Automatic annotation (TrEMBL):
<dbReference type="GO" id="GO:0008915">
    <property type="term" value="F:lipid-A-disaccharide synthase activity"/>
</dbReference>
<keyword id="KW-0328">Glycosyltransferase</keyword>
<comment type="pathway">
    <text>Bacterial outer membrane biogenesis; LPS lipid A biosynthesis.</text>
</comment>
<comment type="function">
    <text>Condensation of UDP-2,3-diacylglucosamine and 2,3-diacylglucosamine-1-phosphate to form lipid A disaccharide, a precursor of lipid A, a phosphorylated glycolipid that anchors the lipopolysaccharide to the outer membrane of the cell.</text>
</comment>
<dbReference type="InterPro" id="IPR003835">
    <property type="entry name" value="Glyco_trans_19"/>
</dbReference>
<dbReference type="GO" id="GO:0009245">
    <property type="term" value="P:lipid A biosynthetic process"/>
</dbReference>
<comment type="similarity">
    <text>Belongs to the LpxB family.</text>
</comment>
<dbReference type="GO" id="GO:0016020">
    <property type="term" value="C:membrane"/>
</dbReference>
<keyword id="KW-0443">Lipid metabolism</keyword>
<keyword id="KW-0808">Transferase</keyword>
<keyword id="KW-0441">Lipid A biosynthesis</keyword>
<dbReference type="Pfam" id="PF02684">
    <property type="entry name" value="LpxB"/>
</dbReference>
<protein>
    <recommendedName>
        <fullName>Lipid-A-disaccharide synthase</fullName>
        <ecNumber>2.4.1.182</ecNumber>
    </recommendedName>
</protein>
<dbReference type="GO" id="GO:0005543">
    <property type="term" value="F:phospholipid binding"/>
</dbReference>
<keyword id="KW-0444">Lipid biosynthesis</keyword>
Amino acid sequence: MQARTIAIIAGEASGDILGAGLIRSLRRRFPGARFVGIGGDEMIAEGFHSLVPMERLSVMGLVEVLGRIRELVSIRRRLLDYLLTTPPDVVIGIDSPDFTLAVERRCREAGIPSVHYVSPSVWAWRQKRIFKIAKSVDLMLTLFPFEARFYEEHNVPVACVGHPLADRIELETDTRGARLDLGLRVDTPVLAILPGSRGGEVERLGTLFLEAARWLQERQPNLQLVIPCVNRDREKQVQALVESLEVSLPLTLVRGRSREVMAASDVVLLASGTATLEAMLLKKPMVVGYRLSDFSYKILSRLIKVPWVALPNLLARKELVPELLQDAATPEGLGSAVLERLQNASERERLHTEFLALHQMLRQGADERAATAVADLIGARS
């Protein structure tokens, strides 16, 4: 049998990790397969051939995209020329939907089976995008069950594969060990504070979260406050915000290691986003806070079609963690919600049970399930 050629397109570090795991699992099914497309170091280490450096696709923000639009169009044209000239057995786009879905659609129109791995947030807003997606893919691979239900309702072939983080994070968290590794006291409570990883988020939420921490410190002086900073720039930004406070706040800043900081905590105060999933998998009670500009919030609040923003609530289909958004996100409101969870042992135990069940639901062996779904599609088209 002729060796398979499998094309994969990843545009971000998270997609590179997913792609590497998928390649490992697909190679067990297709030992002589060739993997080609766009990917990063993780995929290249698995024998992947990247036609373009992945970082050329890693663009965030409207201004940055506009500044690079000609290059991105050129990369897409070059990639499509290659795929349509030497058709692979399947093309798989991982996340980065603005780039990958257009490539998938052209390939599908040319008779090449197409797969998209990681659903866009079409279930939450701009739901009419589902019709474009339906024309672009033969199979959608989702990380969460509620996403798969949405595609099933719209008759788009879908497989829920679970979330790779659920496979990698242990079912039980070693809180004491994490505190020792970080040099924290093991016998006094810890609050992990995560105002976001991007400069704009830290600017918008950092002072708010620090004021909530100060409110808490006045009521529980032995509380250890820890903020993980994704890099040196964010660390300097947070330090400047701390120094701008009128009252000194005892705070530990940690470069990176956000998962360890959350593992060491009793409660997590954080912005909405993927970090809420990680905190849930670590079985940590959390309080979610977020603010946008009034203009952005008015627009988005009309577009959003789901009742919650935090992933634990979306997964459970009920409110497990408090969401304090926009005007509700005040220092006193956030601080009170955190304090309640610090002091309520029975609530922490209840949440542990709920989070454990969700963790087990998502722990499906994502790499293997995704590879099986792709292999079945290839087999059906052979």
